[in-house]
Amino acid sequence: MPIRVQIPGPMRPLTGGAREVEVEAADVAGLIAALDSRHRGVRDRLVDESGALRRHVRVFVNDEDVRALQQEATPLQPGDRVAIVPAIAGGLMP
Question: N or C: which end of the chain has fewer CB within 10 A?
Answer without folding.
Answer: C
